Amino acid sequence: MVGTEDLRRSVVVALQTSAVAAGYYAAGWLGLMRPLVVEGAVVTPIWPPTGVAVACLLVLGMRCWPGIALGALLIMTSLTTLRPAAIGILVGNTAAPVCGSLLLRKVGFRTDIGRLRDGLALVFLGALTAMVISATVGAGLLVLTGRLDAPEFWPVWMAWWVGDAMGVLIVTPVLLLLHGLRRPLRVTRWKEALCLAVIACAVVPAATHSSISLLFLVYPLLIWTALRFQLAGSMLCALFASVMATVAATDRIGPFEGLTQVEVMTKLQAFNGAMALTALLLSAVITEQRNTRRSVERACQELVEVLEHLTAGEFPPGWPAMDDGRRGQPGAS
Question: Least packed by Cβ within 10 Å: which of 10, 67, 152, 324?
Answer without folding.
Answer: 324
